[in-house]
């Protein structure tokens, strides 16, 4: 503004000096236009709250004491003038020394000149003559920027240009006066209205007191209508009084599910913004995995929203949007650079809840047709979406806490009984590693870190549940979400993962922040009305783009989006059946030295329960070596890839809870029979002997054959399951329900597959496997030390511990109890110390929603697994073993109680149960086992047989002498004087080639005690003792009478009752007794008559072998003569060698890369047409297939290229194996 020269000429009134910055003469738009202007001013104009939206005519104006006189002079100058229109639709910038002012102005020259003439007339009336009339430029300030060259300046200037024109009729002038108010230690000043002057008639409206002109309503959330796409007219804001068709609201009200998604799309921060990610963002939003009813977006800019809402598919998917496209003439720009936007299929209204920090707010959406009906009362569903303050410093954590508190308080005050969904980018650092590193480097204080960890508990106290946690607990992570192999505590379910997402890695840079974080969340609160049905991530659709260093993968955003499907409605009684059988878990907190997590970690390391990095690398290398050998990945034959084989780790290694003493359990799944697999696998394993691969022995188990292997010092157990349909549908088959046809397999096959099915569910359903593994390892170590670890003796095995822990851990996670590993363990032991094992079932309530399991009287312990064929994993348990388990849990809980403040984790872990066992009973049952001379393989079988019968002895003792408590220690004992270093066969120790020598002597012990509740007389005790001796005598006779396992020439066993003094010199025999000859049973399992296959044609391929090959051979009854076509099973001629089965040949032709399956046909007996031929590749193995033909009808296999019959049943010809 140009300077003014004060004059007083002739008889004119003396000049009134315009030198005061406490007064101003200006024009002010109508209040109805203020929100449009102040939505930007409130964020960018430092004068917001001090000045109303205005255009200064004269500023500075006159001194306050000169206002009455100046008011009359101004009225004389404007009286009789016609009102005129102004339109502020253009934007520009004033450059100052330290900052810049971005403003609106009227770009119509005629209107500018009209306003200039008015100003000139007023100045003349005041006696002032402008030195430079052209220096005045009419403007309305919107905000300030620091540097005109920075992107922030250009983004703000662009917002000003996107603002729809501010147009009104100027019919009065406003005279403002600054009022100063003392607020605490500082002065606050605000320009307030003192008077107005009408242009039309010069009327002056003056108030007795200054009138505030600020727009305080902006800080109070007010309902806003969304935009709706209206065809050719673009996006139009819905009128507040608009009513929706009854069909539309009825459709909403009848909805039984609601899909809610949230996605941080990553704003562009460089001007002009790049559009290269925009198509990819839309592709991800419209992807099948992101299909949703409501979508909350964070970091949305004006430029991206304009691009997004121009997409036709977006308009069809989401007819309603909280904001319109800023590039549309009648639509305002978004208030901030990073904004929250809500798109929806359902109509809604929304309000903005401001937070304390600038540019931070929440959007609260109220749906008009979605909600809960209580008789005739309708309670709308609420969606609150947030983008909390980013950062891991004290200030940002305090800001997050404040924002969460304000959001929850707002919901509690305004929507206390509404079903509510809270979604968005919470920016809550979840990785325990990141937090610990920040603490170590003093980036964050301990108090702030505690506040951060307690944020989840805040949501729980307010009734919210985490959709990801609930879904994972119940269903496991989605099929698209792999468990992060090396995830640390708090990193599972990560939605921001710089280890995978290159865009996130570029933003994070390096350091301890380069860890996965679960910062995007969907929370729900519905008091039983909202139920999580599904949860998944999206946003992984990428494309290739040219970068500075060549082609690179372009990610849509640095975040993954998340989507949850909610069921709307209350549960029925039938869905609560399992819950009624659930024993609740009360969380406990570890006290004193037990709260020290580092001490717990050290105790586990000293006990060998936590493998070192070197151990992990060694076992991983051994596993990959075995996998490569079995799958023959080194083969250059192209036909190899035609055969699908699934090779998987199961057991403790697959679950990630293994210890140094654990074997690595592996399961191979394939389309061919078990004999074929083990025959070829053995061949390949032997060829790899020079790579450190050694077959220890072949075991015949109830579930089939198992190979015990040694690879470079690591012990492996390899099993195989024949299931072609499972292989073909892998890995999606793991998500198929148990009722699916693919699981219609024999019990033996299902038993093997259950290992991977159970493992997969546990890994995907436990929220934090790192913390779970720590707790699991301690419990396993404790159970071993206390003599209650080994499932075959009725105690706890690894999987039973998994179920027990998973149940407690998941129930704690559901309640969002932020517990350390020590707290989880304290809760675990106290919970099961009070558990009524005889009455209650142990089951995972998140998996068994409805539980129809009926427990029999013969099941003293019921720990239910997940998948069939048998749910109860503790069928070997006996009443004495359960009594022992219960006693040990009570003892552990007592040690970990608050009263036992001297207890530490090293003491707890290293508690030697053998010491207590040898001194805890007055008498013992001693089962002596001795073997001398002969084959150690035979001796080992004898010892194993005795060991396996000990459980039946316990059962018999409990049945015949119920007043007696018998505790079996699950290990062999030997005299301390014996050299137990002999035969310490462990992984890596070569097995002896000679299996014809060696002696062994050891024993098993059962502690005996009277039950405290039984008051027995002396006579009763004598009777009980006689019964005891009778049971032991009968047991010994049964063992010695079994000629299959017992040979009096080389072995002996006896069972007697001894006093405690007689066992004091014993110690646990930790030797793995026995030497095994390589491949001792290689061929025995293959002796398989195909008569059995004919009789077992109702089984799927491979099951007939698993059901019969590994069972003792029994004489088959004579077949009845029928009217069926002639039999194709040929009896074995006397003196002939073993003849390979059709199944072996079929699988060899399909699996062997050196043979061409397409060059072979199968000759078979048709029941009606006689001998027929069919291409081998067209031969169906699945029993359920309409073209399935039982394999006992196969007559021959013939090579098409030369007509040679390579296998024929009638003549027992076999050119493939050379058998027959």
Give a concise summary.
With about 1200 residues, the protein is of the alpha+beta class. It contains 32 helices and 44 strands.
| Class by alpha and beta content | alpha+beta
- Number of H- or I-type helical stretches: 32
Fill in the CATH topology of the largest domain: Deoxyribonuclease I, Chain A
The CA-CA distance between the termini, in Å, is 112 Å
Major β-sheet annotation? 8 strands, mixed
Number of domains: 5
Unreliable segments of 5+ consecutive residues: 7-11, 638-642, 980-997, 1074-1129
Count all strands and give the number.
Answer: 44
Average of pLDDT = 84
Shape: elongated
CATH architecture of the largest domain: 4-Layer Sandwich
CATH-defined superfamily of the largest domain: Endonuclease/exonuclease/phosphatase
Cα gyration radius (Å)? 41 Å
The CATH class of the largest domain is identified as Alpha Beta
Q: In which order are the strands of the major sheet placed?
A: 14-13-17-18-16-15-28-25
Organism: Cryphonectria parasitica (strain ATCC 38755 / EP155)
Domain Poly(A) polymerase central: 772-898
InterPro entries: Cyclic_Pdiesterase, Endo/exonu/phosph_ase_sf, Endo/exonuclease/phosphatase, MJ1316, NT_sf, NuclTrfase_I-like_C, PolA_pol_cen_dom
Domain MJ1316 RNA cyclic group end recognition: 1139-1209
Description:
The chain is an alpha+beta fold. The protein is built from 32 helices and 44 strands. It starts with a strand and ends in a 6-residue tail after the last strand. Mean pLDDT is 84; it is low at 7-11, 638-642, 980-997 and 1074-1129.
